[in-house]
Structures are given as C-alpha cells and as structure tokens.
Amino acid sequence: MRLPSQPEIKADLDFGAIRNVLVVDDSRLQRRILVASLKKWGFTVIEADSGEEALELCRQGLPDLVLSDWVMPGMGGLEFCRAFRELEKDAYTYFILLTSKSEKQEVARGLDAGADDFLIKPLEADELRARISAGARILGMQRELSEKNRLIEKALSELRVAHDLIDKDLRQARHIQESLVPELTREFGRSRVSLLLKPCGHIGGDLVGMFSPGPNRIGFYSIDVSGHGITSAMMTARLGGYLTSQHFDQNVAMEKRFNKFYALLPPEQVAETLNARLMADTGIEEYFTMVYAIVDLRYGHVKMVQAGHPHPLLIRADGAMQFMGDGGLPIGLIDGATFRQTDFYMQPGDRLLLYSDGFTECRVAGGGLLDEDGLCRLAGECLAQHNGPEFLDDMFWRLTQSMPPGETMDDDVSAVFFEFNGN
Q: pTM for this one?
C-alpha cells in the first residue's frame, strides 16, 4: 500500500458527512499506513483485522465510511459487505472495497454485494481523498433527503391526525344532517310519501322532507343547495329549520289560524318568504333550487311551486308519464323575485316523483348523461317491481350500476316519491 506522508495535507479538511471510518484489513502494516493518513485528515478511525471482527464492531455502532480489503482469511470483503448492508437501518454508510488489479473484473460482483466504490491497490493519497470526498457528497445528499423525508413524514402524520379529527366531525355532521329527515316513509291514509337522500360525500347540499298539519293535508319538498360540502350542508340545516316537520310554529310553510290549528300556506308564498330571508342575510352567496308541493288528499289537488329545480315527473296509473312545472328562478338569486304556482289533479294510482339533478346529470356508461328520457326509462323499470321506499332504493341502485366502471357519484342524489291512492 502506498500512502506517503504529505506535509501539505491539513488535518482540518472538511469531509462533510463523514466523521467515523472503519478500516478492515488483515495486514497490520497496511492498516497502519491507511489509518495514519485518515487520522491526519481529521477522521476518527476504528480498525478490524477480519470481516468477522468488523461485523461485530458495526453491530455496536455504524461508521460513516468503511474501507475494506477484498481478500481476507475467513469472511472476505465481499461477504462482509453483504452482511454489513443487512445491519443498516435508518443511516446509510459509504462502502469502499480495496482490490488488486487482477480483481478488476470482479467489480460487478462488488456492486451487487452493496459496495459504493472501489480503489485499486497500491493506494494513492490524492485519489483516496477524492473518493472519500465524493462519498461525503453522496452521504450528505442522502442524509439531507432522509431529513426531508422525516419532516415530510412528520407533516403527513400531523395531517393524518387533523384529517381524522375532520373526518370525525364530518361523520357527526352527517348524523346531524340525517336527523333533518327523521322518517324516510310515512303513510297518510291510503297515500304515502317516501324520501331518498344520498350525499356524494360525508355531507351534502340536498334536502328532502314532508309534513302534515292535519288530516288530508300534506306538504313535501325537494331542495338542492348550490355547491357541495360543509357550506351547502350548513345551508340545508338552516332550511331544515325553516321547513321543520316537528315544530310547526317555526315552519314558514304554515300559519296558525284561530289559535287552534295550522294551515299550509300557498307554495308560491313559501318560496317568496324563503327568497326574502336568504336575500336579507348578508355574506351568503349560496342559492338553492326547490320544488315544494302541497296536496289535498280529499280531491288529489296538487299545488306546486318550481324554483329552478328539475321538472317533477307525474306518472299516471296507466303508466303514462309527464313532466310538470314551468321552471322558475332559483331561490336566493334575485331580491324580490316572484314565483308562479302550478295546479293539477292526481287520480288514485297516480304517482309524483320529485328529484335532484343528481339523477338526470349523472354520467352513464357509453357517454352522456342520464337526462329526462333516461329518468323515465329508469322509473318505468323500477315501478314494474317496486313501490314506496323500495322504488327509490332501486332507482338509486340502478343509477349507480349505469355509471362507467370505477366512477363514483360527483353530486348528491335525492328524491321524493308521492303515491296517491285517494282519500
């Protein structure tokens, strides 16, 4: 080994990430020469005369750099390198194998074993320093990357905790939102109202509901608040309070008469009241579409207001289908907006379907949207087998099955199904 003493070499050279060096060689003389130069350059040096001893030392603590002879009795440099790599955990050590010229063709084997670099004996001081400097740069980049990964992992862990808390809050918010629809089906004499509410996320911006202030009088509605997520859900909670089925004195669709009973107000008046309340609230940019209908069960007389919501589907007892309503403005867009009432009569066996655009604007396999024709086809298929809440469940299931493979709902889906069977 040729590492002549060089006075011009300073002991305070900066080798960055490399501080501790392990020298492994069965030749005591060669170790002495190599160790002398390394210490002169400022390294802390550990010596071992065999691969077995070196491996035991490494179990006690990993060095920054290993300089190991290739050919040694017992465990050679190649076997030691393989065993050493199995010891490593978080920190990485730069490994240089020392080899003779006759072993140059074995470089590929050394790389496979985990070596990072090779030096040909006899060693030159300048080349050794250059190789160590190159290893120090690589170790520095690796440790910098490890630190960044540690910081990223820490940030991800903190984000996971925050996500779990948000997820917990959203699940609770969903329970609260579900409480706005306390019953999904209810019979009114021989007639029945069924509800469907399927948010595309934890919470949604759709709302359905029904209420009855007395015999033969029912009201039901389908609402779709603009946007998605928490803001829309908060709006549905507010609207649920305006149209509550449990506290008639707070329901804007009713008024108390003669201090004895509650009466249903005309649908267009309800829409105008809701519009006025929404426009009076500064800072609220959301609006909503709605169909609100009241029914006199004695005569099948339906009074309905449509405020930008999809046209309700009237399904006659003989299977004929007709879309009802005149459109109208969404609620909360224009101050002082007026709304027009639609009147029609239902006969026993007729059914009325209110639905959100989550149905008609759902993407289906083959391209395009379900649209109104697809809705009629879907309703016809489901009515052939089901009625009441089972009809709505089947509608939703068939809708999901019609979507392109792998896709999920990107909008809330809701519906109200009214079955009129006379008084």
A: 0.66
Token representation of residue 166: 């948000």
122 cis-preceded (ω within 30 degrees of 0):
yes
Q: Which residues of the chain have pLDDT under 50?
A: 1, 5-12
CATH class of 20-148: alpha beta
Q: Residue 315's pLDDT is what?
A: 97
Evaluate whether 370 touches 386 at the Cβ level (below 8 Å). Answer: no
C-alpha 237/C-alpha 173 separation (Å) is: 10
Q: Domain ranges for the chain, please list them.
A: 20-148, 180-419
Q: Which amino acid is at 203?
A: I
Distance CA 19, CA 46 (A): 11
**CA dihedral for 388, 392, 393, 394, sign (positive or negative):** positive
240-282 pLDDT, tens digit per residue, is 889 998 889 999 999 999 888 999 999 999 999 999 999 988 7
One-letter amino acid for residue 245 of the chain? S
Question: Token digits for 250?
Answer: 């707070």
Q: pLDDT by residue (tens digit) across 9-28?
A: 444 456 778 899 999 999 99
180-419: which CATH topology? Answer: Phosphatase 2c; domain 1 (3.60.40)
Dihedral angle of Cα 56, 57, 63, 69, to the nearest 10 degrees: -70
Q: In what order do the strands lie in the sheet with 288-296?
A: 206-214, 217-225, 288-296, 301-307, 341-345
Looking up tokens 């009441």, which residue turns up? 388
CA distance 302 to 199: 28
Measured distance CA(275)–CA(332) in Å, rounded: 5
Residue 404 carries which DSSP code? P
